[in-house]
Amino acid sequence: MRILTTEGLGLALKMLLTCALATLCWPPVRAAPAGPTDDLYLLAGVLPKDSAEQIELTFWDSIKDSTHASDYEAYLKSYPNGRFAALARARIERLKAAEQKPKAPEQSRVAPAAKVPSEREPPAPKAAPKAAPEQAQPEAPAAATEKPKAPAAGVSAAKDCATCPDLIILPAGTFTMGSNTSDPSEKPAHRVTLAKPFAIGKYEVTVDQWNACVTAGACPHVGGDASRPGNTPVRDVSWDDAQQYMKWLSAQTGKAYRLPTEAEWEYAARGGTTGKFWWGEQMRKGMANCKDCGQPWQAEGPAPVGSFAANPFGLYDVNGSVWEWVSDCWHNSYKSAPADGRSWEEANCRVRVIRGGSWREGASYMPSTTRFKYDASVRNSQNGFRVVRDAQ
Known about the structure:
four-stranded mixed sheet; about 10% strand; alpha+beta
């Protein structure tokens, strides 16, 4: 048996450590669809990307700095015996204890101190907040940082009621969905034909629009919705919550609203383009709401809807802002995916697809093909949605 000297053992350990840090012992992969964070690239080099361990680690990394108790509750719902379960419970206890502390008597407002932004209390928007959700109309979206181009041929606008989401009616069409050069979950690239036109939300559903449903008693209050600006995307909503909103909106308008299918979402997000992003192959500052995509950006929450340029179909915030629920059940790849754009379902499916990335992620999550999965009943502060209905 060969015995290593102290010097040889030290060299072997050094080489092993170097190999691990440089991810030379495992083919490095893009971590984007494995979960919402850029800080786990090294882990992607030493763990199978779609393993349960990798998914749990990416989940935890996406919430580890949150000041929102519901994020840790969401983690515990998915991983009650997870490696961070004890820490999650401790943080929930600490955050709830902090909420229950009696507030000091309000002082005269001669010179109020600046507040520190937090997850529950984002900085106040420049416009004065609306008085009551039940009387509020959805605020006009902020001006885009770049003048949008004229909508593509065959595209038109619609709106079914004063508090309903603005819609863009898209023509039927055929496109290539997925990518053969990216993450395994995005393969194989395949042709999909959408035989009928459909209407999709011009923006993600906003806090004001969600609160109209809350006021009607048809939707639940979600984390932080009372303190968030009304023209920002609603978040902390589960797939199940989104279904309640669709049911209420359908009853209000007499039209069948639903979540987009995953194929409809990608068709809309691409805007008739075929590149990595709808604007080309390279990230450009100011085109998406993500942490290294340019201003406006703040760590506490997404920018108001419409703060960035629209894609060629006239849709805003399909890259970044919040992850968007779609109707489909999660599948680890597109093998055997339907070619007609319908929702890809499975019996008793509880894990659904989210698309588009969020403001918390970096540029590697912004491609039109990025996808991930989430439990349908779990709320997360990065997850929102937009609506769809048939064009007729």
